[in-house]
Amino acid sequence: MLPGTLKILKTFVAVMVFLTLILGVATAFASTEALTLSQEPTSDVAWWVWPLALFVFTFVLGIVAVLGGVGGGVLYVPIVSGFFPFHLDFVRATGLLVALSTALAAGPGLLKRNLASLRLSMPMALIASAAAIGGAMIGLALPTNIVQTLLGATIIGIVFILLLAKKSDFPIVPKPDALSSALGIMGIYREESLGKDIEWHVHRTPQALFLFIIIGVMAGMFGLGAGWANVPVLNLLMGAPLKVSVASSVFLLSITDTAAAWVFINKGAVLPLMVVPSVIGVMLGSRIGVKILATAKPKVIKWMVIGLLFVSGLRALLKGLGIWN
Prior knowledge:
The protein is mostly helical. The chain has helices at residues 3-30, 32-37, 49-68, 72-83, 88-112, 118-141, 144-164, 178-183, 205-222, 227-237, 242-266, 272-292, 298-320, and strands at 186-191, 196-201. It has one domain. It has a two-stranded antiparallel ribbon.
């Protein structure tokens, strides 16, 4: 990537982060709608306990998310909505910002290393971000109990995807399809483990674009981010190398989640009391997770993540059905 292009991207990322934080704080404090959404039974616990608990939780979450290879949003939303006394709209908005912060932090470095591909990410991001806006609007329009029930069912579905999905480091793509060739979706990256450059191209692009419509709607509706779905589609369906798929998925999230987050911000569903400790906690935890990654046992972490998702997904499902409040 050209140095000038990288500088432009870094500037864009910095401006988007600044504007999102400023507008989020202003909207959350000024919007009476945000205050209306929060009118739920409260506990006798002091107000400062919950931000502190969020910081501790997201710090651990940042470590687990890195070690488990899943986005922070997919764990944040079901656990916080199930076990913390916050309205689901606020939780979904914060979940998007948590996933967005992680993606924005990692995106420029992945582009600089030529692992994330703009040619692969941008067509998918265009489709997914438009769908995410629609998904966020649908999620805010539906009754909370219905969204909670659908969230629980989705999380349990993700558990089965994680159990059954297999990843391929270097998928075999016999021939690129016409659409990927027309869009120039191909590239070369340096595979350090093999000590050589890997040339790649993709196929089944129309099918992938259709799936990214569904992924975008789900990401916007539930505030989950979509790393759990992006990577299997890019890697297993399209045939991009695993490292390129993971890196491109991270960059793709920085666009998709931004689009959906603005809908929640516009509706006044962003609370600094939740966002600030959550974002700081997950960012610090992610840095620790990267250092632990080299010595951790992946299988143990994988089963821990699956167990957490299953319990929190079941909790969200039963809460939505009114069985477990």
